[in-house]
Design brief:
Layout lengths: L5 E3 L18 E4 L4 E4 L12 H10 L3 H16 L5 H13 E4 L2 E4 L1
Antiparallel strand pairs: 1-2, 2-3, 4-5
Length: 108
């Protein structure tokens, strides 16, 4: 990376909340080689060549709330008996709301 580093301010609302602290990220940090979204809590998103790519990668991260919800659903699936109809309904709902393409998982 080059010696010059700068923070690019992004318009409010362009970046989703930090998946670690829930706060609003500060902007895109980087230089002429690589850029990443940075949050005031110290978290950084994936490094990319352009600010647009860094923003898209940051916004693709799951939030703490989404992770908590997923953890709760998984716990419910584990605790339900195999023959419980509720377990089958939960599994079907998860499949219906998740689309897997290659190594990338996104919600519909």
């Amino acid at each position: 990376m080059s010696e010059r580093s700068e923070r690019m301010e992004i318009p409010s609302g362009a970046l989703l909340a930090c998946p670690f602290c829930g706060g609003e990220p500060g902007g895109v940090d980087g230089d002429d080689v690589a850029r990443a979204v940075g949050c005031y809590c110290g978290a950084n998103g994936p490094i990319h060549a352009t600010a647009a790519e860094a923003i898209a990668a940051w916004n693709k991260q799951s939030t703490a709330r989404e992770r908590d919800l997923l953890t709760s659903v998984i716990a419910a699936l584990i605790l339900l008996p195999i023959d419980n109809p509720g377990k089958q309904l939960l599994e079907e709902a998860i499949k219906a709301n998740t689309e897997v393409s290659g190594d990338d998982t996104t919600e519909r």
